[in-house]
Amino acid sequence: MGQQRLLLILILCYFVQIALGGETSSFMRSQWPSTDIPLDNEAFVVPDGHNAPQQVHITQGDYDGKAVIISWVTTAEPGNNEVLYGTEKNIYNLKAQGDVRNYTFFNYKSGYIHHCLVSDLEYNTKYYYKIGQSDSAREFWFQTPPEIDPDASYKFGIIGDLGQTYNSLSTLQHYMQSGGQTVLFVGDLSYADKYAHNDGIRWDTWSRLVEPSVAYQPWIWSAGNHEIEYRPDLGEVSTFKPYLHRHATPYMASKSSSPLWYAVRRASAHIIVLSSYSPFVKYTPQWIWLKNELKKVDREKTPWLIVLMHAPMYNSNDAHYMEGESMRAAFEHWFVKYKVDIIFAGHVHAYERSYRISNINYNITSGNRYPVPDKSAPVYVTVGDGGNQEGLASRFLDPQPEYSAFREASYGHSTLELKNRTHAFYQWNRNDDGKHVPTDFVVFQNQYWGSNTRRRRLKKNHHSWSQSLFASFEDMLV
Ligand SMILES: [Fe+2]
């Protein structure tokens, strides 16, 4: 019944959208001030007990979703690095050993940061885990994804540029009501670099703020400009230093040479994480890695090809206009060639979704300067509206370019619900609307399985509710 209602809403809203064409929302938001939550606020509460683990977060730990990396911080002493875990509550019959590290940044000294790989997990299974010692130990749980399968359904959340204001908290709370199972995070996490000497205390508070979600489900990390933290004036010249110490990624599983770019497969999705602020021009390690990774994508196993980056390649906002242009010049032809489904970015503190367009015919001597409709191209989504202290980017370029389908400067998050190999429900949720009403929504038709011949072949052998449901709505898909 719930699914039918959602579908009805989607269909109604779709026709409204058709009538409007490309849309710049006139919605006037109510909002909290764009100031960070005070340090003594309960959103940043430190857990009770001597040396209790805090800032607990998990991410995928391998290529295919049978491992997690569990991370936490202890402050008084290193303590042990063990994770106890099992499939029954309070029965921890398995054990994994991690490592511990710390770092300094100017006059800030981090706590003891633990990372522990827990591998050889069963798919589709709830695991309970326990970290810390004696009375200060803490317990959490997570659910592993379904086995890699073209029709595995799965719901991702997409959050970007989150920061630690009351708007950030609102975004997080709305996301936590969405039913999302894993977050695709598109960069700019804590905004600690906005403070004097890039005060690492604001990294600690941010990690406590997001713990209620990320201790229980993986967030797939990508880095933004606020993670660079290059401060030669403070003697800090090692880029991404706090971010990399705090956030492990399974980069070696995809044969990447850097934690800043990597890929994971989860359920029916192949997710590629790129670094907007690492070299990516021809012959650089990121360029070579991406070239090889795209060849490895098997749409028969993982139909949904999703790319994350921080700086958007298509953005019609005055803020950060054209900053993604160099990566567009380097990679767009591959994204079209490999029929990427969706590219999620952040950076611009507003929401925008494009139509399927490309500009791959442009070169420095041709006159083909304009993006054109291209069925093989990705949809570009900017979700840099998590709610950080810099506020919203409310100056859109006027008129709205033809490639821009919907844009609005409000805080929110997106969800992408992969239904099967052919269809996915996507929606953007403005915080002010609560959890039930999507502000922007699209039914995505898979770029590989959505082709006519493959769909016909599929229908013969694989008749499911969604195909019959959507048979009469072929035109509403992107
Ligand atoms: Fe940014």
TrEMBL record:
Catalytic reaction equation(s): a phosphate monoester + H2O = an alcohol + phosphate
Residue ranges of every copy of the Purple acid phosphatase C-terminal domain listed in the record: 377-435
EC nos: 3.1.3.2
Superkingdom assignment: Eukaryota
UniProt signal peptide: 1-21
Gene Ontology molecular function terms on file: acid phosphatase activity; metal ion binding
Purple acid phosphatase N-terminal domain residues: 53-144
Official protein name in the record: Purple acid phosphatase
Annotated organism of origin: Carex littledalei
Phylogenetic classification of the source organism: Eukaryota, Viridiplantae, Streptophyta, Embryophyta, Tracheophyta
